[in-house]
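Structure ticket #2291
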Amino acid sequence: MPITRRRLFGLFAGAGALVGVPSLWISRMKTYDGPVSDHFDGLTFFDPDGVPPKSLREVLRWQFGGKRQRATWPDWAPSPHADTPPARVDGDKVRLSFVGHASWLIQAGGLNILIDPVWSERVSPVSFAGPKRHNDPGIAFEKLPDIDVVLVSHGHYDHLDIATLKRLAKSHAPRVVTPLGNDVTMRSSDAAIKAEAFDWHDRVELGGGIAVHLVPTRHWTARGVFDRNKSLWASFVLETRAGKIYVVCDSGYGDGRHFRRVAERHGKLRLAILPIGAYEPRWFMRDQHMNPEDAVKALGDCGAEQALGHHHGTFQLTDEAIDAPAKALVEALGAAQIPQERFVAMKPGQVVEI
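Resolution: structure written out below.
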């Protein structure tokens, strides 16, 4: 397939949402400055048990190689669900509403918590190119209850959406809890974003008997040409009265040690939210994104009672078909002899209560 100017422009516009291919027109950004640790060398963050992201050469091989097989998604694939959340959820119950891709509203202990909120039309450094929505958010922005806390896992455009964070800062003024360095990105765009940055293994009290732990995950991050892994990435373990909820927004599987360590460190997990999409081709994606078979292994490793699948069906970031992750999850659960109801692929607007 020839490398046209149009295709190359589209690649660099949207690739930050997936593999962090830098948008070449972004100038040098402010980045994290802090002490050296076992996962920060003074300049960049790294996963001692992970692998570096793919090179630009490998990205171009994937995008423009002659053997690429990219499924065509429908222009619009609406979810049959839509949610209007209550103002608050008190007591011992937790209400989880799937917004789409990796975005969730979690209501517990009288708190309203958003995970990786993205209400934008595209996940890209520009508004006119890059991966575009194939369905509406499961909750209309205007129907959100008062938002108290936002958790942002890392800086890729399909997780850290500055436009949405600005809207939230203006209309809700929530706390924003994020791994080290992502606060710099947020505040440099809008000083009104109340970003607080934390390291792996930090525990943050959110109120209402709810706390969040930032835990290592097998991934990486970038937004511009000079900031590859200049910020940290993480998964979350939420402590709630209904039990602990393990939220994995983006991760490869590797040998499963990240998931086993969460089980060892945090004990019994009531629920795991696991990514099941953006995984083809495997030679390129396997180190950073799980496929459904990997996600089923991760469920076994972390030992959660139940799992919900996300990170699929809204933005076409990779080559699999729009419905491939949900179908492959059914097959993987069957092969592992795990009941289908234990791990459900969610659609925007669906709600689960525990």
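Closing remark: The chain has eight helices and 14 strands.
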